[in-house]
């Protein structure tokens, strides 16, 4: 009787559900603030629609490549409303102008978002927030500035706390390379060919998983940057132009920092692009060790962005076979399962899972 009750309990939960207030880095946009006078329900609806629009733009900026995001900025509000799974007004108070200030958390529906992106031929990035150690170098008038006299070293983190305070979705948390004599000597010896620098030979970056070596320099007519990144084991080199303000040197340098940060974010997004128009399928065999193992698996699958849907193929007291419909690369899916304490063993091309 107990086994029969256990099976019935599992079947009740076969459909994939979502918890409205659960946190999801990709599909959740929190703390959207809008203000305006609310005299009637229509006024309130307009304010909430404004928050939806702002949240959609924030979602696009966070997960899409820059060009794709900009192309979707003009999406109509009725389409955006249909993409929303739930929202919560967490604050409603009067400001000094006697206007209502609303702070709203918004959750987008993963399936609807994926369908919307597929229709528009857009891939999204399954990104997470990472820490990255940066080594910026500045070349000016044939002089190399690395640390104390380097504008970019001294000002790179200047607005980090402000961005966090403004509840921006920070993809990359920066640390700066620590000054050491070996790096000073190595870079000085290679100052004529900094693009050939091997970042693995930089002591301040050598043991760090995510790092970047960035050189700002002037040519005869242009201001440019050379970027060499190593993020999650993938190395990418890139050159790009920077805007010059002839009458404002500081503005030139500040804008260069903004542009360089955008380039690094684009690299991180590009490495994690997922084509939602071509999902894949995987059969997973779960070894049942405890009575609630499948329920744990179900909860974990509901949290993994890559998993679009799943269904139970077969169920016994010892084993449950689940078919996953997922987006992205299979290794990325495996990493997500491992992160959530699901052990994976592959035997004869069969994925066998156990819950820790």
Secondary structure: elements and pairs:
Layout: H1 2-12, E1 28-36, H2 41-63, H3 66-72, H4 77-83, E2 84-94, E3 100-108, H5 110-119, E4 124-125, E5 130-140, E6 143-145, H6 151-155, H7 160-165, E7 172-176, H8 181-189, E8 211-218, E9 223-231, E10 234-242, H9 249-271, E11 273-274, E12 280-287, H10 293-303, E13 307-315, E14 319-326, H11 330-339, E15 342-347, E16 350-355
Parallel strand pairs: 5-7, 5-8, 12-16
Antiparallel strand pairs: 1-3, 2-3, 4-11, 5-6, 8-9, 9-10, 12-14, 13-14, 15-16
User: Roughly what percent helix?
Assistant: 25-40%
Counted beta strands:
16
| Basic shape | globular
- Taken together, the total number of domains comes to 3
Low-pLDDT runs of 5+ residues are 1-21
N-to-C terminal Cα separation, in Å? 27 Å
Strand proportion, as a percent range, falls in: 25-35%
Task: Specify the biggest β-sheet.
Answer: 6 strands, mixed
Query: Strand pairing plus helix content: what structural class?
Result: alpha+beta
Q: Count of helical segments?
A: 11
Average of per-residue pLDDT values: 88
Which sequence of SSEs, written as H and E, runs from N to C?
Answer: HEHHHEEHEEEHHEHEEEHEEHEEHEE
Radius of gyration: 25 Å
Detailed description of the structure:
By secondary structure, the chain is α+β, with helices and mostly antiparallel strands. It folds into 3 domains: 28-123, 2-Layer Sandwich (Alpha-Beta Plaits); 130-273, no CATH class; 279-355, Alpha-Beta Plaits. It is built from 11 helices and 16 strands. The chain is globular. The model is unreliable at 1-21 (pLDDT under 50).
């Amino acid at each position: 009787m107990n086994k029969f009750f256990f099976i019935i309990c599992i079947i009740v939960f076969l459909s994939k559900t979502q918890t409205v207030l659960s946190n999801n880095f990709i599909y959740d946009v929190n703390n959207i603030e809008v203000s305006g006078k609310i005299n009637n329900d229509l006024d309130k609806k307009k304010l909430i629609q404004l928050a939806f629009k702002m949240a959609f733009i924030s979602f696009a900026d966070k997960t899409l490549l820059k060009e794709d995001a900009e192309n979707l900025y003009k999406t109509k509000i009725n389409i955006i409303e249909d993409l929303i799974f739930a929202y919560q007004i967490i604050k409603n108070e009067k400001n000094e102008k006697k206007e209502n200030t609303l702070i709203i958390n918004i959750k987008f529906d993963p399936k609807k978002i994926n369908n919307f992106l597929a229709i528009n031929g857009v891939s999204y990035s399954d990104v997470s927030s990472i820490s990255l150690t940066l080594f910026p170098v500045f070349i000016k008038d044939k002089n190399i500035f690395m640390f104390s006299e380097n504008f970019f070293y001294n000002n790179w983190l200047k607005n980090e706390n402000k961005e966090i305070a403004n509840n921006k979705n920070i993809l990359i948390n920066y640390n700066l390379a620590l000054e050491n004599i070996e790096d000073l000597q190595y870079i000085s010896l290679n100052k004529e060919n900094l693009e050939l620098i091997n970042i693995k030979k930089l002591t301040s970056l050598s043991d760090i998983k995510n790092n970047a070596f960035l050189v700002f320099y002037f040519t005869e007519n242009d201001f440019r940057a050379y970027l060499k990144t190593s993020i999650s084991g993938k190395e990418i080199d890139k050159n790009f132009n920077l805007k010059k303000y002839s009458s404002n040197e500081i503005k030139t340098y500040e804008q260069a920092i903004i542009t360089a940060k955008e380039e690094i974010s684009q690299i991180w997004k590009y490495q994690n692009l997922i084509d939602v128009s071509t999902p894949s399928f995987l059969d997973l065999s779960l070894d049942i060790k405890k009575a609630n193992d499948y329920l744990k698996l179900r909860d974990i699958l509901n949290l993994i962005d890559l998993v679009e849907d799943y269904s139970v193929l077969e169920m016994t007291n010892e084993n449950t076979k689940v078919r996953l419909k997922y987006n992205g690369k299979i290794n990325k899916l495996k990493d997500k399962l491992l992160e959530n304490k699901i052990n994976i063993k592959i035997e004869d091309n069969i994925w066998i899972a156990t819950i820790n």
